[in-house]
């Protein structure tokens, strides 16, 4: 597994399980993590062993969000059957997607800033696995060996159909927030309930696995104040990451830096002073404190 990251001062890093190096020391052509996303999608990131600098331990670095300028920010609702049941809702037959603004994004540590109680008295936090787009694409397939999925089998296809693996740069843990009482007043208030500043915490690392890596047994955990309040495995998603990429590429052009948060196994209520952590097995974790 290789990783792309940004130091707190913005310098890009390339790493593996043994440590990190400055990204330009391994790939001088890439001045930023965003620059390296197409190479990550193409499986063309260099080895950390080839860098002109020595590795340093990852824990020695203060890190910001893996992207400081993300593109489109998608959220997916009710993507785990159990979570839909917890909310007394039926799992949708197609991905239930929505947008969050760039101003909602923040980095590791946050803080997550709750809105005034006059606006919302109940905010929840949700751990999610995010998939990050590395190449501009349209009408991609889920997997060349599997053919079209149920989510996109009726969509028009171009003559040169790419596999979703060819356009995914990598995966990252994120924390998504919802002003739940706002949403409960009216489901059309979804955008408002999801869009407060700091309501999306992006992880410190973009994990870049080998193409075709099976994530079905990967566990996603929502942890609040040290207690796991919800967990599930990616294989229990209604629409796995590759299907979500294919589905949305049939709707619009996807571009490097677009982030699709793939849904949560469940949420926990947060208050000022809470500490929230999203832990994605084999991918990484991100945590943030909560203030008002």
From TrEMBL:
SUPFAM superfamilies: FAH (SSF56529). InterPro entries: Fumarylacetoacetase-like_C, Fumarylacetoacetase_C_sf. Transmembrane segments: none annotated. Residues 72-144, 158-291 form the Fumarylacetoacetase-like C-terminal domain. GO terms for molecular function: catalytic activity; metal ion binding. Residues 88-116, 142-163 are annotated as: Disordered. Keywords: Metal-binding. PANTHER family: ACYLPYRUVASE. This is 2-keto-4-pentenoate hydratase/2-oxohepta-3-ene-1,7-dioic acid hydratase in catechol pathway. It comes from Halolamina salifodinae.
